[in-house]
Amino acid sequence: RKHEPYSFDWWIDMTVSFWCLVIAGIMAGLVVGLASIDHLTLEIAAKKNAKLAKSAKVIFAVINNHHWMLVTLLLINAACLETLPIYLNKAVDELIAIAIAVIGVLFIG
Fold first, then answer.
1. Is the distance from CB of 107 to CB of 21 less than 8 angstroms?
2. Most buried residue, 4, 52, 80, 103, by most Cβ within 10 Å?
3. What SS3 string covers 31-52?
4. Using CA atoms, how far apart are residues 25 and 19, in angstroms rounded to an integer?
C-alpha cells in the first residue's frame, strides 16, 4: 500500500530506506576492510606501539574468526539490501523504487 507523500508513514519508509543504505554501506566497507587486514603486518606494528596493541587485540579477535565475521557482515548487508526496495516501494512508484535501489546499491556497495 502506497503512503501519501510527506505523510508520517512516508517519512518512516524513507528513513528506513536511508538507514538500510547506510548500514549496507558500512557492512560492505567492513567486509573489504577487515578481510584485507594483513595479520603479520598488524602484529609487527602492535609490538612497536602499546596503544595499537590494544586495538590489534580486539581486531585479532574478530579477524581470527573470519568465517563468522564474513557470514555476519554479509547477512546484515543482504538483509538491508533486501529490505530497501520493500520500504521504497511503499513510498514511491515501483520504477522509481527500483531505480533508487539499484543506483543506491551501486554507489554504496
1. no
2. 80
3. HHHHHCCCHHHHHHHHHHCHHH
4. 10
Q: How far is CA 101 from the centre of its chain?
A: 14
d(CA 41, CA 100): 40
Cell numbers at residue 109, please?
556497495
Work out the percent of the chain whose per-residue pLDDT is above 90: 44
Q: Is the pLDDT of residue 13 over 90?
A: yes
The whole-angstrom separation of Cα 83 and Cα 44 is 41
Residue 74 C-alpha cell reads as: 554479509
Closest CA to 101 of 4, 11, 2, 14: 14
**73 vs 1: CA distance, rounded Å:** 31
Per-residue pLDDT of 47-91, as tens digits, reads 998 888 898 998 998 888 889 999 999 999 999 999 999 999 999
